[in-house]
Amino acid sequence: MRWFVLIATVAAFLVPDPSTAPAAATPAPAARAAVPASDYFNYPLPTWDPHCLGFGSEWRLCNGTVLRACASGAVWLHTGVDIKTGIQPVMAAADGVIAGYIVDPVFRGGVLIRHSTSQGIVLTQYWHVWPRPGFKVGTPVKRGEVFADVADMGAQTHLHFAVFIGDYESHAWNGALPPTECSGFPAFPYRFVDPNAFIQAHLPFVAIHSRRGTLALDT
Ligand SMILES: [Zn+2]
Hints:
There is one protein chain. By secondary structure, the chain is an alpha+beta fold. It has one domain (37-218): Glucose Permease (Domain IIA), CATH 2.70.70.10. It has five helices and twelve strands. Strands 2, 4, 5, 6, 8, 10 and 12 form a seven-stranded antiparallel sheet that branches. A three-stranded antiparallel sheet has the order 3-9-7, with no helix packed on it. It has a two-stranded antiparallel sheet with strand order 1-11. A hairpin with a 2-residue loop joins β5 and β6. The longest helix is centred in the first third of the chain and has 13 residues, at 2-14. The protein starts with a helix and ends with a helix. Bound molecules: zinc ion. Zinc ion (ZN) binds at residues 53, 78, 80, 82, 160, 175.
């Protein structure tokens, strides 16, 4: 009888009441709550299926044609991720200010958004987009705000998205960089990081649907 009591006591201690278990196991969400909202990033499209090139892929068209190589023959490497999409709205990945807009005859519009985070300045790079009216250099944007649309590139229509750790400079525009310095360009990845890993690590608490899912992601 004494054993039953002891076992029952231990069991009660080890298996918390389900109604209180989540509260007792919330150190991670509590820590996340202290993260400033400026550190939260979202994916800029509602779906995120990879197109032909990922982060660090050789810079080639989907059919394999090399887009740029050094004189040595070394193929440049892709600084961002290409995402399958039709022509649809593009959202700002985080709160920030539009820091640059250029138009390339082949690649259409490129936009850089500057984000002030607790870890420093981060730029997000969007290629093959057209900014919407009213969105120009200097315009503040909120995370999730539609600021552009995917540009029509026919069968090659896609979004290129990259994350650059640092403030505005000319190389923040690069969609690819050489594997070793050439033609005055720094070696890949320079200040670019894997955009998928970066966004995944900075998704806001509110983007997660269930408490159980949150705990799983935080750990
Ligand atoms: Zn690309």
